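Name: DNA mismatch repair protein MutT
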Amino acid sequence: MPFAGAKLALFIGTRVAVIRRDDIAGIPWPDYLDLPGGGREGSETPLACALRETREELGLVVPTPVVTWGKRFTEGGGDKWFFAGHLPEDVASQIVLGDEGQSWQLMAPQMFIAHPKAVPHFQTRLALYLSGVSGDDFAL
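Structure predicted for DNA mismatch repair protein MutT:
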C-alpha cells in the first residue's frame, strides 16, 4: 500500500522520546513538540521509514521487534503510519540529536498528549495507542 511517511512513538522506559521542531518559517508546526519520523524515501516500508528517521533524528538504531504496534491513517498527501515501540530506560544515554530539531527530551505520554505545543494529530494518535485499540498489520 502506498504511503507518504511514518512516525514512531518511542518509549524509553515509561516516557516517550520527543523532539522540539526547528523554529523556522516554511516548515509545518515550527517550534512544536514532535515524535521521530518523516517522509518516505525510495521504496522503503512504513516501518523502515520510521526506523530510519529515528536513527537520523535521535541517533538510535531501533530493532524492528521493539515496534509492536502500528496503524495507518489517511491524510491529504497520502497514507501515514504511526508506530509505537518500547526500549529500556538506559537507552536514553545513547540519544544524540541529529541535524533537525532544536532539542529532545523524554516526556510522560500524558504530558505530550496534553501539551499546548505538541503536534495535535500525533497527540491524538498517541492517545489512541494508549487506549488499547488494535493496530493494523504492517510489514517489517
